[in-house]
């Protein structure tokens, strides 16, 4: 196993499930000291258990936080620096899908909630982590956007708007902070079988969501859902020093669906 993250400190938000959990496990196997952040404390404990099964001496900090609250974000950054002294990598990942509906029927409160978590939460994380990384003169940030951030997604106005915003923040901040030795990029996952995607399928058809899933991936050139660990491999690479010159860009991981006409 690679030791790309030996003596490196990585923060992961949304670490209690899905892409955050898979990425945490991967970078822990490669030697990272981890600050794991999630609103769901039970999910954090599950991630901790999975990591310790593979890396018994892993150095972990678990923080329960709501990324839509600026003070919570400021606190998880402070706790990380207080414990570890620096931040080498930041997987700015926490997010929700929200309810599905036509734009005219999309609730204003629901729109605000999705944007508050998916976009404001990413902004707050970048704001406070970038301050640390700029002063250090190094660091890598990976934001979770979505294929919904580079093209439309029907019935998901809040989600698509928020993820387009993440793409804009990534490109803009990458341009700003490259001069300080900080690289910033985003991933754009497609249909990855996570609890969030499962929940989305159940919104479409609660009684036969597995069949909806089969139809959902049919247009994909690879005819399947992606696996969380496949995203974890990509995130680990992008957070590593090997990807330092990848900056201000968005990398799809969707089996090629975004480019199929």
Automatic annotation (TrEMBL):
Which example biological process does GO assign this protein?
bile acid metabolic process
Q: Which UniProt keywords apply?
A: Oxidoreductase
Q: Which domain of life is it from?
A: Bacteria
**Which Pfam families does the protein's record reference?**
adh_short_C2
The protein's GO terms of the molecular function aspect are:
oxidoreductase activity
Q: Which family does it belong to?
A: Belongs to the short-chain dehydrogenases/reductases (SDR) family.
Name of this chain's protein = SDR family oxidoreductase
Which lineage ranks, top first, belong to the organism behind this chain?
Bacteria, Bacillati, Bacillota, Bacilli, Bacillales
